[in-house]
Amino acid sequence: MDYFQSQSLKHPLKCKKRLTQDQVRLLETSFTFNNKLDPDRKSQLAQQLDVPPRQVAVWYQNKRARWKSQILEEEYKSLKHRLESVLKENERLEREVERLKQDMTLVCNIPSFSRSCDEVGSSSLKFHGQNHHHLDKEIYACFNIGGEGGEFERIEGHNFFDPSISL
């Protein structure tokens, strides 16, 4: 007698019954209430469905695996959609920044604006360790907001370019 014949005698093949639609419906309903199967519930379902308890347990295991995969797939799709939205928004903002830089260059190159605009130029916009508030002052000077007296700079006693104020 060879190895396979001896194994088949030790473990006779049992025909596993395929579940009917009604049985699956009952298992699905039970699963929606609790996706874990306690021993009492397993015995009760097996008796109710007229199948071995092991088949009920295996069905629950498989259902949990499919359920987890489905949840992961849905989360992946949601995250992918959010990423695409953020990337589009990022592109839009980058285009807007580029447009604003071009506008700034055009405005700063108009000779009728204040002389401080020429002083601002591109060198101070490079953030070479300069104070951010100082940069803001130069940008507003470029647009001549408030004139030479700095009307914009002080409104009702507030200095908008005070380094102690955080943005």
UniProtKB/TrEMBL annotation:
<protein>
    <recommendedName>
        <fullName>Homeobox-leucine zipper protein</fullName>
    </recommendedName>
</protein>
<keyword id="KW-0238">DNA-binding</keyword>
<feature type="DNA-binding region" description="Homeobox">
    <location>
        <begin position="12"/>
        <end position="71"/>
    </location>
</feature>
<dbReference type="InterPro" id="IPR045224">
    <property type="entry name" value="HDZip_class_I_plant"/>
</dbReference>
<keyword id="KW-0539">Nucleus</keyword>
<keyword id="KW-0805">Transcription regulation</keyword>
<keyword id="KW-0175">Coiled coil</keyword>
<dbReference type="InterPro" id="IPR017970">
    <property type="entry name" value="Homeobox_CS"/>
</dbReference>
<dbReference type="InterPro" id="IPR001356">
    <property type="entry name" value="HD"/>
</dbReference>
<dbReference type="GO" id="GO:0043565">
    <property type="term" value="F:sequence-specific DNA binding"/>
</dbReference>
<comment type="function">
    <text>Transcription factor.</text>
</comment>
<keyword id="KW-0804">Transcription</keyword>
<dbReference type="GO" id="GO:0000981">
    <property type="term" value="F:DNA-binding transcription factor activity, RNA polymerase II-specific"/>
</dbReference>
<dbReference type="GO" id="GO:0005634">
    <property type="term" value="C:nucleus"/>
</dbReference>
<feature type="coiled-coil region">
    <location>
        <begin position="62"/>
        <end position="110"/>
    </location>
</feature>
<dbReference type="InterPro" id="IPR009057">
    <property type="entry name" value="Homeodomain-like_sf"/>
</dbReference>
<comment type="similarity">
    <text>Belongs to the HD-ZIP homeobox family. Class I subfamily.</text>
</comment>
<keyword id="KW-0371">Homeobox</keyword>
<dbReference type="Pfam" id="PF00046">
    <property type="entry name" value="Homeodomain"/>
</dbReference>
<dbReference type="GO" id="GO:0045893">
    <property type="term" value="P:positive regulation of DNA-templated transcription"/>
</dbReference>
<feature type="domain" description="Homeobox">
    <location>
        <begin position="10"/>
        <end position="70"/>
    </location>
</feature>
